[in-house]
Amino acid sequence: MHAGADFIKTSTGKIQPAATLPVTYVMLTAIKDYYIQTGRMIGMKPAGGISTSKIALQYLVMLNEVLGEKWMNKDYFRFGASSLANDILMQLTKAKTGFYQSDNYFSKD
Amino acid sequence: MEDTTKNIPFMAGWKYASAPEATDHIQIKPSYNLFINGQFVAPKNKVYFETIDPSSEEILAKVGMADKEDVDLAVAAAKNAFKVWSKIKPRERGKYIFRIARLIQERAREFAVIESMNGGKPIRESRDIDVPLAANHFFYYAGWSDKLTYAFPNRNPVPLGVVGQIIPWNFPLLMAAWKIAPALATGNTVVLKPAETTPLTALKLAELIQESGLPKGVVNIITGDGSTGAEIVHHPDVAKIAFTGSTAVGKFIKKATADTNKKLSLELGGKGANIIFEDAALDQAVEGIVNAIFFNQGHVCCAGSRLFVQESVADKVIQKLKDRMSTLIVGNPLDKNTDIGAINSKKQLETINKYIALGKKEGARIYQSECKLPSKGNWCAPTLFLDVSQSHKIVQDEIFGPVLTIQTFRTISEVIEKANNTPYGLSAGVWTQNGAKIFHMTQKLNAGVVWANTFNKFDAASPFGGYKESGFGREGGLHGLKPYLKFE
Amino acid sequence: MDRIDVLKTYKLFIGGAFPRTESGRYEAVRDKKGNLIANICLASRKDFRNAVVVARKAQEGWNKTTQLLKGQVLYRIAEMLESRKVQFVDELVRQGLSKKAAEKEVELSVDRLVYYAGWSDKFQQVFSSVNPVNSSHFNFSVLEPMGLVAVIAPENDSLLGLVSILAPAIVGGNAVVLLASETKPLCSISFAEVLNTSDVPAGVVNILTGKTSELIPQMASHMDINAIVYCGNNENQMKKINELASENVKRVVFFKKQNWDHPTDESPYFIEKLQEVKTTWHPVKI
Q1: Could you say which DSSP state residue B325 is in?
Q2: Across the B/C interface, how many CB contacts are shorter than 8 Å?
Q3: ipTM of the prediction
């Protein structure tokens, strides 16, 4: 951040373990401390292992409580998670129909 | 020090949808009798009193008001049962207690919900702390039943007889477990009185004990108020009184039993010092401060209600603390999002408010988090007092609410002196990454429990209890057996 | 005859699974009248080696669990054993015990498990110490499990003896590879089924059936075994174990007693026998 980064992210999802809640928490508090020092907002991107809506929600709750609403948008927070999108679609469909979904009905690209 | 909270942009933006714990699976009867000699019997005087949900002020049930006659019956039942219970093989005694532990585990959710409804504590705490710890306590002491000679080698430990146990309203089920489990494991029989405002989980425990097949009269649970407790204290057939509650009542009990052979153990008030050194992990320490004072609405005898922060990091810690407080959710105890529930009773709320007014009057600077409080019920916003000194009443007295006083210090000897400068001696907290400092502090602090880089941790295997006016005797662990035994 | 019984295949218990012996060898166990009860696996040294590998892995995780949890798991084993009492009584009777003796053995086994469940979070409180050293240090000694324990289970009391050795070993955080009673092996494998439904992590307990004489040298010499418990009184076997154990200074524990039904056959000292003592020094002066 001191070298001018606009975004910081965890390692890619290609190695294990990648993003975890504790690691992300540390990075969010670093962003917070840096903001207090400099007044500059840095974005955050946790990546790897965030494959379900439920886990994603836990990250969002953490973001909400550590950095607050100014960071709650695409400019300052992103998930690096290729398989998350389909799960969100499944959950949305479940919310609409009331039926638990199967991944056979959602295209994988 | 400037109050800069308003300028901080980190306010949580998204509000959480409420996530209340379901109540449809729990069973509360409209009215409860006294549990004496294995049966639920009406109080002799036919007097009942209402018990409410402090968050909504709704009436949950009526419970019996035991008077002298009922206490006599309960003590007689316990005395009679002692003949049987003290003769049962210790191993089989243990099996009954294991059974109680298992039954609590099976019905944990029901107990948690009722605990939150009747006491006002957040469901997260009753679900994750009170109820599991209660079950663990029974599990732990069950195992001691047939192993007492290993705890006290070369002595012959024998039970005392009938023990009278009077418990507070801040951890109703957990305190019942802390009292009943070691008493049973050591072969005593019990007359227990839950607090006036929180009788329901103890009565549910009575139902569970009835179902467990425990011989009748071994545990008797009678509800009532202070006068009921006094009858237990004065009863000549009670061999021991175990009391958890205020120091004032503790002193009364000590005096009342002065000319008797009654054995006593007292777990009384506290005004715990929570000490943050400059070399602490500060974010972790802030979580610790929050846990120390806002856990269970601050209704905790070992709460870290006096915060001492080393001067060099004071501004930073206080700012972080205020930020953290802004995310605390005060409200419906049954909502899984809730951090701070309802104040246990109107009376306690009045006490807390009295102290808050006094703090202001004494010239301390108050800070309260801007949280929305429900319109109905008993509530108190998380509160800090800055600019306080040892001479302030709010620093000296146990407030028993979510109110934290903050002082700064420069040197280690200064903070030790201030931390010990109190009639209480129940708990203390130390936050530093320096191990030697931790052990130095644990040697110097006059407190029965010292937490290092953590706070408000409890475990069935760990003794708990105070120095000085915080009482005597230990509960939990091997040491928790001793108050229930005599040695021949 | 309306229906014929479905007989149980008795296999080994390794890593939470029930494999047949890799050697393919077996021995028939017969009742008094000579009827076949079961074909029991004769485990080979390779079966033993495989068990050691999984037990070593499992021990680390098992040791890390809290003592409270270990106690709950042992209590769970007791619950499962109690609920299968009839099966075990039946098995013991088929191997020659009277019904009364069989019932007593199963009941004592259940109670013994409960007894050690109770010790889970207490033995440390009895055996550890804070040592008042002559300098400003906080000095304390705690027990830690030896690690991987090989057990040659008692020949008699094929269930109670096995439980009496196994429970104190695992409650202290060890993992075990156990060779069952050679002459009465049935209960050991049925007990493995109990373990397998009692939240005991896979690999913490591994049970082999087979020839004591054949496997003892393997168990005593394996360099990744920390301790060996031998129940029996064959002087030659004990000498052999002592000799081979010296290779990696294995801890050796002998129990010469034949029966395990006496009140003194349970004790926290049986836990302590399979523990090391670790002392920590920490400065107090600042």
Answers
A1: H
A2: 67
A3: 0.96
